[in-house]
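Researcher: We're teaching a course module on how sequence relates to structure. For the next exercise, students receive a sequence and then see the predicted structure as tokens, so they can try to spot secondary structure elements on their own. Here is the exercise chain.
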Amino acid sequence: MLLAVSIAAFAAELLVITDAQIAKLAQQFGALAKARLIGWRDIFSNPKYKKLAEREKLELVNDFMNQMPFVDDLAHWGKEDYWAAPVEFLSTDGGDCEDFSIAKYFTLRELGVPDDRLRITYVKELVIYKQAHMVLAYFPSADAEPLILDNINKTILPAGKRTDLLPVYSFNGSNLWLAKEQTGRAQQVGPSDRIGHWRDLQARMRA
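Model: And here is the predicted structure for the students to work with:
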């Protein structure tokens, strides 16, 4: 079912959402949306979470976002491919793999994880669905094997143990890489705003 919503304005500041905005979204999407948004805001605004070790931040955000149901873009938005802002994802009770990865990325950035340690990664899932998929990769250091945050396999694992995934390209707030091998090493090929959906998402979040 197409969701007739216009909530990009609530993401004008990256991850700032007020009580009044939560209340307005709750009127449209219900009590569960309100609870999710309050819980999400607590993650990135409560000082105790910013003091966690980075691995603990990964576990916290991965577990929180993976509570959401998977919903296909065509059924959810009436579009073949729509990249939702985190507020949209959490308010409308679901999203697809891009939405999970994007919400995790922005929330971890707000928790203080550096951009150069995170890459939203387009892969091919080879075992269950045998189709395009997206995950979030975390690099403990520049040359380290990344850890994979995923909504299919919800356990955070090193990339080398995810033999079901074949990386194609990855990006973050600054750069775009083409994959060279499964463990995460890649060739930088330019700025990430070469990706149209990523550029459009960030424009909506700044609107």
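Model: If you want an answer key for the exercise: Residues 126 and 164 are 5 Å apart (CA to CA). The chain has eight helices and seven strands.
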